[in-house]
Design a protein that fits this description.
With about 240 residues, the chain is α+β, with helices and mostly antiparallel strands. It has a domain of about 140 residues: START domain (Alpha-D-Glucose-1,6-Bisphosphate, Chain A, domain 4, 2-Layer Sandwich), CATH 3.30.530. About 35% of the residues lie in helices and about 25% in strands. Strands 1-7-6-5-4-3-2 form a seven-stranded antiparallel sheet. Strand 3 and strand 4 form a beta hairpin. The longest helix is centred in the last third of the chain and has 31 residues.
Length: about 240
């Protein structure tokens, strides 16, 4: 096979991507990498016409002294016995417009379900996948992780020391006396504090003493009764004399 793809990016960017297995794996559209496996190893669903076939395999890139690259792929159907093998050569050349052309040559062998489908549908699916792969190589590298930078981001940097709180303003005289009265109760039981009468200028004015009045009433009642009885006796005596 032979195919050519134009990428609106300098060849230097694609060469950096081809030298990084992680970026090569990210450029494969739809590749689901296996956890803990080498970059480029995982599952890939390929749509051929109205059919979808899932493959499990790996992809690797090798650089050559002449500036070309070899891309090798080996995969098998996840549900079947079919296999796919690729041996492609990439050659990059800059253009006057600031981009580059990628010329792809090589061979590919397909077996299983893909071999039973129309050849033009298989070729169209392979061309579409190859174009998207090369275009992915030309994309800018993603930003570095925050954990790879020397200066931690604001979210990971230590929090600044809190500013000292201002000195509290002195309490007014009324509040100062109330606070003093409260401090004098420290150390006393809760029951004593709750039932202790307020002191100082906030102490309630005691009610007038009623002991003397009560005592006078206690003695005045018998005296009034005695006077009334005496008046009755005198009245009866006067009536008898008449």
């Amino acid at each position: 096979m032979e195919h050519q793809v134009y990428v609106p990016a300098p060849s230097a960017r694609l060469r950096e991507a081809l030298a990084d297995p992680a970026r090569v794996a990210r450029a494969v559209p739809g590749l689901q990498q296996d956890a803990g496996a080498e970059p480029g190893t995982g599952r890939l669903k390929v749509r051929i016409g109205s059919h979808s076939i899932t493959y499990r395999g790996s992809l690797s890139v090798s650089a050559h002294d002449d500036g070309s690259y070899t891309v090798d792929g080996d995969a098998a159907e996840a549900r079947g016995t079919g296999t796919v093998k690729l041996a492609l050569t990439f050659r990059l050349a800059d253009t006057d417009e600031g981009g580059c052309t990628v010329t792809v040559t090589g061979t590919a062998s397909v077996g299983g379900r893909a071999a039973e489908l129309p050849p033009e549908a298989v070729e169209s699916a392979a061309t579409r996948l190859l174009n998207r792969f090369v275009e992915g190589l030309g994309e800018e590298a993603p930003p570095a992780s925050v954990f790879e930078t020397e200066v931690p981001p604001p979210s990971l940097a230590p929090a600044p020391a809190p500013e000292p709180e201002p000195e509290p303003e002195p309490l007014p005289e009324i509040f100062a006396e109330a606070a003093h009265a409260r401090r004098t109760m420290i150390g006393r039981s809760a029951e004593e504090v709750d039932h202790a009468p307020p002191r100082g200028r906030y102490a309630p004015v005691p009610a007038p003493q009623t002991v003397a009045a009560a005592s006078a009433l206690r003695w005045a009642a018998p005296a009034a009764a005695l006077a009334l009885a005496s008046a009755i006796v005198v009245t009866r005596a006067l009536r008898r004399r008449r």
